[in-house]
Design a protein that fits this description.
Layout lengths: L2 E6 L20 H14 L8 H6 L2 E8 L7 H14 L2 E11 L6 H7 L6 E7 L3 H7 L5 H13 L5 E7 L6 H14 L3 E6 L7 H7 L8 H17 L3 E4 L2 E3 L6 H7 L4 E4 L4 E4 L2 E5 L3 H9 L5 E5 L2 H13 L5 E2 H8 L1 H16 L3 E4 L2 E4 L1 H4 L2 H7 L4
Parallel strand pairs: 1-2, 1-9, 2-3, 3-4, 4-5, 5-6
Antiparallel strand pairs: 6-8, 7-8, 10-11, 11-12, 13-15, 14-15
Helix pairs in contact: 1-3, 1-11, 7-9, 12-16, 13-14
Bound molecules: iron/sulfur cluster.
Iron/sulfur cluster binds next to loops.
Length: 382
């Protein structure tokens, strides 16, 4: 289930809520591409260096995120995919996803994209309401979002996911229901829906502190989460992770590898990697990334995860999924005393209907999913 993530650090315009690493200048685009390919070569044995290792566990997913990968032309994307295939063993059935913004997805660009190895599109829709898109400072219109999805289907993409954001002060409950209905009408297979969060030092953070934007209303956000779960589950979408819904068989293979602790390699500025209890992260600065790679030095820092860090991380990620936290795994990796202690800590959540224990798995209920992060942090190793 190993995966490769590639960070493309360019965007057309800065969304107010965003704290990812990107630049709105494309000046360094060629230098970045040259260095991305060089980084692939430098890290070609990340997953193991014998051909045996590679045969045994070929890469199951490649994910181009960012930033806005759809700003790149198909020639550039093909260069990236050729590099990935040259330096890593990619499974013939690998899920190959690219994040794309609606304003880049014309019928022509989508037809060209079909000629690349991309077999899954992740479209950053966020909302079908103009006032909401303006609030977020998105670069596209509702009409562009709709035609991007329709065009993608017409061009033959059969595995589409869209991103939506709820909890914005400009989104009423009825508009949120409308966003979900339109999504269903458009027939996308997978939906990632995120509650608006105000990250420090983003434009949104500044606007709120200056009183130029309304703060996030947590009650409204919780209400919209419940509305979403109700509507999407009633239409057959599986709520397989707190922020992710999919029709059967359409789970994101790439994200699953993060959640179940499989190794992944992150390439490009700010990308994170994980392998054999070691995580590393590339510098979140494109100029410094380029300079370092050109000097033959990987621009990364790393740390070995301690036993307690791994425990907390497992709890946090597993409780967010519909499969829940395996008590057997806890016992095997952290000992039977720890497993018993965890069961004791979970008692109040089980009694309050926030969690159930089924076949040695602790699983959050519909009500519990509302408090997933809080419950997980209450259970952290002390
Ligand atoms: S397009 Fe995506 S990465 Fe770029 S600024 Fe907007 S949210 Fe951030």
């Amino acid at each position: 289930m190993a995966g490769v993530y590639i960070h493309i650090p360019f965007c057309r315009q800065a969304c107010h809520y965003c704290n990812f690493h990107f630049s709105v200048s494309l000046r360094k685009r060629n230098d970045f591409l040259e260095c991305l390919l060089a980084e692939m070569e430098m890290r070609h044995n990340f997953f193991g260096n014998s051909s045996d290792d590679l045969q045994k566990s070929p890469i199951q997913s490649v994910y181009l995120g960012g930033g806005t990968p759809s700003l790149l032309g198909t020639d550039e994307l093909n260069q990236i995919f050729e590099g990935v295939s040259k330096y890593f063993a990619i499974s013939p059935n690998a899920e190959i996803t690219i994040e794309a913004n609606p304003d880049d997805l014309t019928f022509e660009s989508l037809s060209a994209l079909r000629q690349t190895p991309v077999n899954r599109l992740s479209i950053g829709v966020q909302s079908f309401h103009h006032s909401d898109l303006l609030f977020m400072n998105r670069a596209h219109t509702p009409a562009q979002a709709i035609s991007a999805i329709e065009n993608a289907k017409e061009c033959g993409f059969q595995n589409l996911t869209i991103d939506l954001i709820y909890g914005t002060p400009t989104l009423s409950d009825s508009q949120w229901i409308d966003n979900l209905r339109r999504t269903l009408d458009l027939g996308v297979e997978h939906i990632s829906a995120y509650a608006l969060t105000v990250e420090p030092r983003t434009a949104l953070d500044v606007l709120i502190r200056k009183g130029k934007a309304a703060p996030v209303d947590e009650e409204q956000t919780a209400m919209q989460f419940e509305i979403m779960v109700e509507i999407l589950e009633s239409k057959g979408y599986m709520h397989y992770e707190i922020s992710n819904f999919a029709l059967p068989g359409k789970f994101s293979q790439h994200n699953l590898s993060y959640w179940i602790g499989e190794p992944y390699l992150g390439l490009g500025p700010s990308a994170h990697s994980f392998h054999q209890n070691r995580r590393s992260w590339n510098i979140a600065n494109t100029a410094a990334y380029i300079q370092s790679i050109r000097n033959g030095i990987l621009p990364l820092e790393s740390e070995n995860l301690t036993l307690t860090q791994r425990y907390d991380e497992y709890l946090m990620t597993s409780l967010r999924t519909m499969w829940g936290c395996s008590l057997q795994k806890i016992e095997q990796q952290w000992g039977s005393e720890k497993m018993k202690e965890l069961k004791g800590q979970c008692k109040p959540f089980l009694e309050n209907g926030l969690m159930v224990e089924t076949d040695h798995y602790l699983i959050l209920t519909k009500k519990g999913r509302l408090f997933a992060d809080r419950i997980a942090s209450d259970l952290f190793w002390v």
